[in-house]
Amino acid sequence: MSEAGWIAVDDYIVGHLLEPDAALDAALAANAAGGLPAIDVSAAQGKMLHLFARMAGARHILEVGTLGGYSTIWLARALPEGGRLVTLELELNHAEVARANIAAAGLADRVDVRTGPAIETLDAMIAAGEGPFDLIFIDADKPSNVAYLRAAIALGRPGTVIVVDNVVRDGGVVDATSTDPSIQGTRALFEAIAAEPRLSATAVQTVGAKTWDGFLLAVLGAAA
Ligand SMILES: C[S@@+](CC[C@H](N)C(=O)[O-])C[C@H]1O[C@@H](n2cnc3c(N)ncnc32)[C@H](O)[C@@H]1O
Fold first, then answer.
1. Could you identify the atom of ligand 1 that is nearest to the CA of residue 68?
2. How many whole angstroms separate alpha carbon 140 and alpha carbon 149?
3. How many angstroms does the Cα of residue 224 sit away from the middle of ligand 1?
4. Ligand 1 lined by 41 (C-beta under 6 Å)
5. Could you give the CA distance from residue 4 to residue 153 in angstroms, rounded to a whole number?
6. Which residues of 147-177 are buried (b: 16+ CB within 10 A; e: fewer)?
7. Which of 99, 141, 142, 210 has most ligand 1 atoms within 8 Å of CB, for mutation?
8. 0.70 exceeded by the pTM?
9. Measured between alpha carbons, how far is 223 from 65 in angstroms, rounded to an integer?
10. Which of 62, 119, 200, 212 has an alpha carbon 20 to 30 Å from 151's alpha carbon atom?
């Protein structure tokens, strides 16, 4: 099937299983108006993240890579009363657009957008004893994925769900000779997880509006 076919199937999924959503549509429009790249998760993927958070009963969510807050909104909507989401973003203009989108979606009271290089923010969070987080979504610069994984383990607890986006990269993940830092970072992530006995993990390939890619899914702690 062609890329047009993948998009048609994505449209079919969204048309049948997702409600029209003015807040999310407005967020994407604001991102475009603000010059942000359209590298958010797709609508179907956003709903998947939302369902993961509900399945995990997540009260505390951490996101690494906010962009304009599209995935943040999907995740924050899964929080129960009193739940909190912390999302980390390097670019000040991305964070500014995200804060406005999150406020317009009525979620400002439960979402904390923190700016700066995520590795530094995560180190500060670990030093401050923050956490544990119930679900951690990693979706920022791919060369730092191993550092984000280590921080996620430090900020998690047994049962924490860790989700990493863009781990297939048009199949590039299997190219051991690639000099692309994002592919090298993704391969290093797989190797780190394979060597990490505290994680049980898999990855699932996806096609659709965001081409050929995939999500890595992990749970911290041995199965009961
Ligand atoms: C793929 S986008 C995030 C998309 C978002 N999760 C969504 O689906 O709506 C990646 C984001 O990570 C941010 N980023 C890149 N390097 C970063 C770093 N070192 N620290 C924090 N954020 C970073 C980028 O500025 C960009 O906004």
1. 9
2. 12
3. 34
4. yes
5. 39
6. bbbebbbebbeeebbbbbbbbbbeebbeeee
7. 141
8. yes
9. 29
10. 212
The full length of the chain comes to 224
Q: What's the rounded Cα separation, in Å, for the pair 180 and 189?
A: 14
163 phi and psi angles, rounded to 5 deg? -120, 130
pLDDT in 10s for each residue of the chain, 224 residues: 688 999 999 999 999 999 999 999 999 999 999 999 999 999 999 999 999 999 999 999 999 999 999 999 999 999 999 999 999 999 999 999 999 999 999 999 999 999 999 999 999 999 999 999 999 999 999 999 999 999 999 999 999 999 999 999 999 999 999 999 999 999 999 999 999 999 999 999 999 888 999 999 999 996 65
What CA–CA distance (Å, rounded) separates 29 from 163?
26
Rounded Cα gap, residues 222 and 215, in angstroms:
21
Instruction: Identify the CA nearest to 71 among candidates 3, 165, 141, 149.
Output: 165
Sheet-wide strand order for 135-138: 111-115, 84-89, 60-64, 135-138, 161-165, 213-220, 199-206
